[in-house]
Design brief:
2 copies of one chain form a homodimer. The first copy, chain A, has 206 residues and is mainly alpha-helical. Chain A has 2 domains: 56 residues, Arc Repressor Mutant, subunit A, CATH 1.10.10.60; 125 residues, Tetracycline Repressor, domain 2 (Orthogonal Bundle). In chain A, 67% of the residues lie in helices and 0% in strands. Chain A has 9 helices and no strands. Chain A is elongated, with a radius of gyration of 21 Å. Chains A and B meet through helix 6, helix 7, helix 8 and helix 9 of A and helix 6, helix 7, helix 8 and helix 9 of B. Chain A binds a DNA duplex (30 and 30 nucleotides) through helix 3.
Chain lengths: 206, 206
Amino acid sequence: MQTEPVKKSSRPAAGTRERLLEAAMKVFARDGLHKATTRGIAEEAGVNEVTLFRHFQNKDGLLAAVISQAVQSHAGDGLDDARWNGDLKKSLHHFAKTLYANLVRDEAFIRTMVGEAHRHPDYAQKVILDAVQPMRARFIGNLEAARKNGQVRRGLDLGVAADTFTAMLFGGMLRHTGGCAEDYTAEKYVATCVEIFASGLAPVRP
Amino acid sequence: MQTEPVKKSSRPAAGTRERLLEAAMKVFARDGLHKATTRGIAEEAGVNEVTLFRHFQNKDGLLAAVISQAVQSHAGDGLDDARWNGDLKKSLHHFAKTLYANLVRDEAFIRTMVGEAHRHPDYAQKVILDAVQPMRARFIGNLEAARKNGQVRRGLDLGVAADTFTAMLFGGMLRHTGGCAEDYTAEKYVATCVEIFASGLAPVRP
DNA sequence: GAACAATGCAAGTGACCGCTTACATCTGAT
DNA sequence: ATCAGATGTAAGCGGTCACTTGCATTGTTC
């Protein structure tokens, strides 16, 4: 289907595994874990199907490798602590825009994971532990710092609060990218999340 | 596997279609749209596979019927306007608890729909239009009423705000029911959503 | 240029899937 | 008693899938 005029006759042992991983990520996300076929993945990678089985014992091994790689590549991007100095609302907005963009970028893969989570609890847990927990911890830390600055009221569990915020963005991404045509832009949605969350955290004025 | 000592020798033409729909809902949710097999669904329903094809032309027709029925059965439950009279926070809490319980009840089906949405945009859209839009409209209406009571500040698009709230609950459900073991209860999560959202909507005190 | 490892290629295996056909059986209404 | 319609049973068809085997080819390294 896709004509890749390059290579094909070169056998440099170069990046075959990487090309397979990339293709698998794409096909798994596009077709779902079960509908995706090893033939399709190999074709997408421009590689013989047998080579796929030589690199990864079976389809499941390939999936595990894909998840491992995807998680590593995404961990750590996003929020840089340096931006969390000044105004809480501005920092939140920057964080929200970055996170939302990442969510949109990985939409297909995320949807597949959400749909398949209760059929592969081990993989789902790995994704969550390795990819979202570090970000969550840093986010909570920044909220705590903001509380010390007096920008956040007391009496709130900041761990739970942080999860409500990311859930807002996560759910909004699913809604927007889904067929559900909204009457507002993603930017407005993100801004509203920040507005409501920041006001919700703010200390009550006496 | 499942021993159903009743019936099996009775052929009362009774509820065969309904049993098939129920079984299909269950198997689709459990195994995913593609992994689910017509044989498995028929077996789950205690019905011959051929009967399945006599009632629904093909697997896709069965899926469409399942979605139709599921959407109808869920539309309209949840929030009763009568409860939206007094305190906004209390009303929100009642709404949130009801919605969250419904989300948890249909977790498997919801996950399947989320994962399959971009492969069946037509079905996804039908689900959204028929099931979530009516609830959304009523929720927005109630928020507008609360604003007239002076419980909600101006300058917020209540449609967007409503979506951020349901997204919080939606994302929280996915997180909790996923393998991700949290250190807080679902009740605390829901209460925190309400707390932050209500404070976020409240008018700023001068 | 020889040895070696990676890859391609062709073919196949057993299993399962969606779906169909042909025929027997049972039930309920007339 | 009969007849129609719904269901069951058995068998199969064409297709796809995950995965394997055997062998040829190619590039790299020494």
